[in-house]
Every structure is written in C-alpha cells, then in structure tokens.
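Ops channel
N.P.: pipeline sanity check, posting one input/output pair.
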C-alpha cells in the first residue's frame, strides 16, 4: 500500500475516533463532521478491508446517541450527510442493521424539511444528501424496510420546497 493511501486511512480513522467522544459545542462539532464527510466522500464503493477498518470508528460514532439524536438542526444535517455517504459506500448493501437503517433514513428525510431555505447554513449539505440518496437509490432500500410513511414524508418535503 502506498504512503498516501495509508495516510488517508489514518485520517479517516482519526476523524471517526474524534466523533466517538464529540465536543459539546456545536461550533467545535460541525468542523469535525465536515472533516469526516470530506474523507467519507473520497471513499469508493466496495472499499478494501483496510479502508473498511478505517471506516469503523466513523460508522459507530455517527449512530451513537450523542450524534444521532443531537438537538441542533445543523448537526443533524451534517450527521445525515455523513450517513448518506456511508450508505453510498456500502451500496447496494445496507451499512447497519434494519432498525438502525430506519432511524438513519428518518434522519436523512428530516434533513429535507427545510430544503426550500437556500440561505440556510446547511443548504448545500441538504442538496448533497438529496443527490446521494438519488444516486444510490436509497428509496429502494427504504421500501425494502417498509418505510412507506417515510417516503411519503420525503415527497411532502419535496413538494413544500417547490411551492
């Protein structure tokens, strides 16, 4: 393995480890989530075993209650963005157990609620999540998990945004 690859793996793993014990300040947390998203966005589908291992801390941290159930809307969108990247990486397989995936999709769909607010701090992340959801056809997985109400809610958000 080349040195840049090893360095990337270390940076990805470190980003995840920092999120395992996230700072309480939103202003400190958002840059960490941005960094994690940056690294996740550079991981190809069907990654090597060593990249999968480097992904592990991030995958665990993002579904831990401190991040998954955070009260700040911008943190929620940033977490949803990271999870959508993990979903892209693992596609067509789901990266988490069904119950966790249902909650992850709930978080992702909730990020579309203010898609019409293009002045929002999280607007670009919301559109990026939407692009990823469309690209990896997450709706199919949502249907497999019987998340019909969630799909309906997602389309309600879309209709609200175009009105």
């Amino acid at each position: 393995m080349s040195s840049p690859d090893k360095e990337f793996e270390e940076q990805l793993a470190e980003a995840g480890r920092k999120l395992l014990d996230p700072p309480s300040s939103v202003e400190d947390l958002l840059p960490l989530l941005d960094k994690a998203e940056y690294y996740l966005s550079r991981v190809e589908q069907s990654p090597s075993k060593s990249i999968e291992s480097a992904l592990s801390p991030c995958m665990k941290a993002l579904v831990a209650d401190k991040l998954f159930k955070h009260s700040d809307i911008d943190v929620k969108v940033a977490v949803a963005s990271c999870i959508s990247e993990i979903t892209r990486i693992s596609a067509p397989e789901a990266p988490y157990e069904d119950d966790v995936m249902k909650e992850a999709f709930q978080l992702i769909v909730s990020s579309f609620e203010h898609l019409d607010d293009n002045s929002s701090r999280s607007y670009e992340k919301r559109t990026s999540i939407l692009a990823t959801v469309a690209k990896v056809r997450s709706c199919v997985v949502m249907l497999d998990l019987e998340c019909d109400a969630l799909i309906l809610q997602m389309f309600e958000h879309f209709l609200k945004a175009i009105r």
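N.P.: looks fine end to end. The chain has a mean pLDDT of 94.
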